[in-house]
Design a protein that fits this description.
By secondary structure, the chain is mostly helical. The protein has 16 helices and 12 strands. The strands form 6 sheets. Strands 1-7 form a two-stranded antiparallel ribbon. A two-stranded antiparallel ribbon has the order 2-3.
Length: about 525
């Protein structure tokens, strides 16, 4: 029976059978003790340190192309919002995001099932169960915000979400998509269970979930659902933990040595996402903007001199000058690297300067500054404007040059909400949240916001070493087109014999010339 259970979860939605399945099923088949199951969860339930979902950064308004080599990335089709982005040279490739998420969910379901048979170590079993429920909630959160419409209370019970599976055994059915409401119901249930199980349990490490990680994610999910009192309560729970905001005034600016070929010393950013900092609550997976990360970060390691394909958009850079005078916001200094070889002296998001196993993720990251922003947003939605402003000041005083710091002018209503959204963009850039934020802002019942995004696209010719402007691509406002939702993978639809309904067809976007 054990083998059938394992095979059942592994074939679920994967659509292919490769060498991984045999190896993975053996790992689970021999997992009998608590230690075995914890090892399985860490190895197959948590995201591997080389796993990332970098495409989520390319669709929003925080990046622009910086083509300085011929290096192709699979993110290019996401950048220009093509009809089916998982293609290259007109050939469809497997959507690894979907596969990875459900593969990890499958492992979690098996671990949860097998934990029922462990009768000793009750406290440790509860802790591991709590970690399982937290991870499953995090993965379904990522899935539903990628492959489904954003949460709208009035339509969530009919909007298509993603397939939900919580059992480890074979079901003789082809899977269908649950609704957005059903998907979120599981997310909330899992997080509530995780909160209860992990409360007062010993924290293992920043790479394993604890009670405060659960509360931090709850504060985010409650915002998405418009449950502001609950979001506030969850945020305040995190603030009871032993976390401290970094003060960027205390960070030194370091010049790279030796100088580059032009005799210039590049400024090396501080790794502000170092998991050892007391601002980090939880992280897993890789960092898209760490050094040596193909397509995003610095291509040349510790001597920061060569950049890759995407850089910070001019609009994002200017956001740091919106509230304070030029140069007083320290975040551009520590979030971005200025490449001296770039004639335009453009900035590249570089919140980490290494791809070491000790770096933090940029898509599965929870840290104190986000919790404060979640709290400020919840307070603003509850018309507690003065308290919201106080929370913003608590964050900003650690991010602005101390000698130049001036309190913000008091705002309320829509102006306050705009300020909080701007602050989220400044603080959380490169952390995989901007795309999801743009989606939820667009359907906000009280303060809706949607914008048109234009991405300029270039081509690098290897033979001539010249960059050619191909054209520009426009993403219309939310509601005017369907490209804010990623298509269901073709291999999943085929595997389930068409029982899984695809999202609305995205248009074949045409380039236009704007300069």
């Amino acid at each position: 029976m054990k083998q059938y259970i394992i095979l059942g979860i592994l074939v679920f939605l994967l659509g292919s059978c490769d060498s991984f399945l045999k190896e993975y099923s053996q790992d689970l088949a021999y997992a009998e003790t608590f230690s075995d199951l914890e090892e399985v969860l860490i190895g197959n339930g948590y995201l591997n340190r080389s796993t990332g979902f970098s495409w989520v950064h390319t669709m929003d308004d925080d990046l622009e192309e910086a083509v300085v080599s011929s290096s192709y990335t699979e993110y290019e089709n996401f950048f220009i919002w093509v009809s089916y982005p998982c293609t290259r040279n007109n050939k469809v490739y497997k959507d690894e995001t979907w596969v990875t998420m459900y593969k990890n969910i499958s492992a979690i379901n098996v671990v949860l099932s097998k934990l029922k048979d462990i009768t000793d170590l009750p406290e440790e079993v509860e802790r591991l169960r709590g970690e399982c429920h937290f991870l499953r909630a995090f993965y379904y959160y990522f899935l539903v915000n990628t492959y489904a419409k954003p949460y709208v209370k009035e339509s969530a019970s009919t909007d298509l979400g993603v397939p939900v599976k919580t059992t480890e055994y074979i079901e003789d059915i082809y899977f269908k998509r649950n609704t957005v409401e059903e998907t979120y119901s599981l997310i909330m249930s899992d997080l509530e269970i995780a909160s209860r199980l992990l409360k007062d349990k010993k924290h293992q490490s920043v790479f394993q979930a604890d009670y405060y990680a659960v509360q931090a994610l709850l504060s985010r999910v409650y915002l998405y659902r418009g449950e502001y009192e609950a979001a506030l309560q969850a945020a305040d729970s995190v603030l009871q933990g032993n976390y401290t905001l970094l003060d960027y005034n205390e960070f030194p600016q370091v010049e790279a040595s030796p100088a580059n070929m032009y005799g210039m010393h590049d400024i090396v950013p501080v790794s502000v996402l170092d998991p050892s900092f007391e601002e980090t609550i939880f992280t897993q997976g890789t960092g898209a903007f760490a050094g040596n990360k193909h397509g995003y970060g610095i291509a040349n390691g510790s001597v920061l001199s060569v950049v890759n394909r995407f850089r910070a958009s001019e609009e994002l850079v200017q956001m740091y000058y919106k509230e304070q005078g030029g140069g007083t916001d320290l975040r551009p200094t520590f979030f971005m690297y200025i490449n001296q070889r770039d004639p335009a002296n453009k900035r590249y998001i570089q919140k980490q300067v290494t791809t070491s196993l000790t770096t933090a993720s940029s898509e599965f990251l929870l840290r104190l500054s986000e919790v404060l922003l979640n709290k400020a947003e919840a307070l603003a939605m509850l018309d507690r404007d003065e308290e919201a402003m106080e929370v913003l000041e608590e964050l900003r005083i650690k991010r602005i040059v101390a000698t130049e710091y001036k309190p913000l002018d008091v705002r309320s209503g829509g102006k306050l909400v705009e300020l909080i959204r701007d602050e989220r963009r400044r603080e959380l850039c490169g952390e995989g949240q901007r795309w999801f934020d743009l989606r939820r802002y667009a359907v906000h019942p009280k303060y809706p916001f949607s914008k048109e995004i234009v991405h300029d696209h270039y081509f690098y010719d290897n033979s001539t070493r010249k960059v050619t402007y191909v054209g520009s691509y426009r993403l219309n406002k939310y509601g005017e087109e369907p490209a804010y939702v990623i298509p269901i993978p073709q291999h999943v639809i085929e595997f389930n014999k068409g029982n899984i309904e695809d999202n609305e067809t995205r248009p074949n976007r045409e380039a236009f010339v704007r300069f």
